[in-house]
Amino acid sequence: MKNDIFESTGQFKKEYRRMVESEVGKDFEDADDYERFAALCNLVAYRARAIHVKNDNAIVAQRKKRVFYFSLEFLIGPLLENYLLNLGALETVQEALEEMGTSLERLSACEVDPGLGNGGLGRLAACFLDSMAHEGIAGYGNGMRYRYGLFRQVIKDGRQVEETDNWLAKGYPWEVRRPESAVEVTFGGEVVRHEEDGKYWFTLEGGETVKAVPYDIPVVGYGGQTVNKLRIWSAEPAQENFDLDAFNDGQYANASKFRTDVEAISTILYPNDAGEHGRILRLKQEYLFVAAGIGSIMRTFKRENTRADGTVDWDMFPELIAIHTNDTHPAMCGAELLRVLIDEEGLDYDRAWDIVTRTISYTNHTVLPEALEKWPIDVFHRLLPRIYMYIEEIDRRYREDFIAKHGDRMDLLCETAILWDGQVRMANLSIICSHSVNGVAKIHTDILEREVLNGFYQLDPEKFNNKTNGISFRRFLGNANPSYSRLITSAIGDGWLDDASELHKLSAFYKDSVFLDAMTDSKRLNKERLAAYIKKTTGVELDCDSVFDVQVKRFHAYKRQLLNIFKVMDVYNRIVNWGYTPRPTSFIFAGKAAQSYTYAKEVIRLINSVAHVVNNDPRANQIIKVAFVPNFSVSNAELIYPAAEISEQISTAGMEASGTSNMKLMANAAITLGTLDGANVEIAQLAGRDNIEIFGLTVDEVEALKSSNSYFAWDEYNRDRDRLGRVVDELIDGTFAGLSGNFNLIYDGLMHKNDADFVLKDFHSYVDAWEHLGSIYGDRRRWNAMALANTANSGFFSSDRTIREYAEDIWHV
Ligand SMILES: *Cc1c(COP(=O)(O)O)cnc(C)c1O
């Protein structure tokens, strides 16, 4: 599709020069790279906003439904190259910049990668924004503008060290501050009851009011027809209460304390995989972005739906607005919408409740019990007294209704009520306020229905549905892998950027030796590009003839990076002691661990310690190498995925809800080595069992072992003292202690806490499966045909498809 926003390189250059002059105040020749970069973003954003205004007018004129996607995280990544691709201007701009004596690559390198998310969940939200714009849906992100993103990870002595991510240090050229659209949000205070003529109502008195100020970032859809926006909120003081006396006394910090206390709300993003700690600031973040988002929706709705007589057409609310809640972080949407409709707009409860449940929908992302959000009632009540009253009322009515309908099933009530045991259960609140609940892969939705949310499923099976996750092929194949994209486009045209199911046409090339050999060349380029980055960031030199075996994702016990490094330790032992010669391989890891998640940080330290030993041992380092890429983020992910040949997706079956790096790697022609978990199950079905390597326990087997208590880690250890037993011993015998000591915590987890993640149980089937892949790699055409079958069948995992399903089944747009 060619739909360039710039008529020609000449036209672009003229406009771009003018933009540099007006924004930077310098001639193009005198501007530095960052200034040139920022001006280019401005030019693109300027064009994008013009499209947005046109879209907005059409939405109002056609009374089109808007979708608001509420998410505490949006991991958007660098935007410039993606927006140029989506606007059809990538080649024009590349060419023009070369003619101007610079390059797009050089200017793009100036772009920050905003760390406004932890990993998969935040990246999913960003892919959804891209796809909503592509599908022509009026879909808006609603999130938080954290002053500091997720920490930057550096490795010292093998350990993860966290550094502040000051992503706004140079400003952010894509955002526009909208102070005129600020919303006031109140915390604390006291609820007061009023009564007059037999009618009563409540008001909230006192408390601390803060100002939520929105910043808008354009979201440019592929094809250039639709531009939506992501609105992120920043907390600021409602009033300047600067203490001049304190300042004049030299107490500078005290003088502006009012400011720092408020701004703390939007200062940092909390890490997601350390369990919830009931931190009050987190609850404040959740309410701030919910209340601000709903306040802003209300303002627009009333402006567009007030009749001549001044009344508002509330019946239209669920017809014109869908609110989607990404996980339980926006769970207060229901209570807040109820509060606004009743307290501020004067609707009666039943009518308001009907609007709430017809508007809101919810996605569950996890089966981990420690990640199911709960808040102590006393904390909640003190911080949000009026919202808490509404939650109490929602819960009271839910119970009343329940007993009337299913009075004999008190077990189900105990499972599904919102308030229980002194706590507010946010997942239950989300489900009760929603008309739709979805999981994110078939097997995940099955597990929700069968186990985690079985109570709700029994009561209302119709509410449940599956929406298998997806990814942006434009970003993760089009932008990230130019050489493979060119090869694909030369074979089947570029229609796959618009409709990823066109990748099926690649099946005509499974036996085409010219195409298959060109795949080797493309992969080689990507491996060299990654190897150069790894050399620069870690000093480790990789052999580009070796297999690139990749596991890049957050560190978590259930994702089992430990199983992967055990494989490396075993292969190393066998090379050194038994003269084993495996397929030469580079084992590449990346990922952050939550700051407080000690176990996961120990696994990072183990990987780096193994790397230190292996990479420096001349008996092994011609055959295998280990690299840990620091500070995993969208930008280095875009270098890693295209270079991968083996995609490690090895979570304990039943634990990974979906995964999305499995999809990105599949699209980039890596072969999955995985368990039957999350979307791996669907990958296996689509690619065919011959084109994926599956190993290990199934969900049913894991459940059987757990419920029968028949798994004993020591049995596995004793059964194979030579290989597995040896690897376990090496955690504590000094073999890998050179960098920073032994690994007693990991050893205890396995041998004294009975290996909750079944690492020892799956060890042999895993290493065997890996060796089987190695045996195929020697026949590169066969390997490439398998890899191509993966790309060809990956189109289902386009987030465009996912979004079309949400639009049709849930949002009704
Ligand atoms: C896709 C992506 C993830 C998700 O990876 P999983 O392996 O599915 O957990 C995490 N972080 C980044 C930067 C990503 O792009």
UniProtKB/TrEMBL annotation:
UniProt-listed GO biological process terms: glycogen catabolic process
Top EC class, one word: transferase
CDD domains: GT35_Glycogen_Phosphorylase (cd04300)
Modification type N6-(pyridoxal phosphate)lysine: residues: K664
The keyword Chloroplast belongs to this UniProt entry's keyword annotation: no
TM regions (residue ranges): none
Reaction catalysis annotation: [(1->4)-alpha-D-glucosyl](n) + phosphate = [(1->4)-alpha-D-glucosyl](n-1) + alpha-D-glucose 1-phosphate
Annotated EC: 2.4.1.1
UniProt-recorded Gene Ontology molecular function terms: glycogen phosphorylase activity; pyridoxal phosphate binding
Keywords assigned by UniProt, alphabetized: Allosteric enzyme, Carbohydrate metabolism, Glycosyltransferase, Pyridoxal phosphate, Transferase
Gene Ontology cellular component terms for the protein in this record: cytoplasm
Cofactor(s) of this protein: pyridoxal 5'-phosphate
Similarity annotation: Belongs to the glycogen phosphorylase family.
NCBIfam families xrefs: P_ylase (TIGR02093)
Cited function: Allosteric enzyme that catalyzes the rate-limiting step in glycogen catabolism, the phosphorolytic cleavage of glycogen to produce glucose-1-phosphate, and plays a central role in maintaining cellular and organismal glucose homeostasis. Phosphorylase is an important allosteric enzyme in carbohydrate metabolism. Enzymes from different sources differ in their regulatory mechanisms and in their natural substrates. However, all known phosphorylases share catalytic and structural properties.
Protein name, per record: Alpha-1,4 glucan phosphorylase
Native organism: Leptogranulimonas caecicola
